[in-house]
Amino acid sequence: MRILVVEGDERMVNFLRQSLEEDGHSVDVALEGSTALAAGRAKPPPDLIVLEIEIPEPNGLVVCARLRQDGVPTPILMLTGRDTPKDIAIGLDAGADDYLVKPFAL
Question: pTM, whole model, 2 decimals?
Answer without folding.
Answer: 0.95
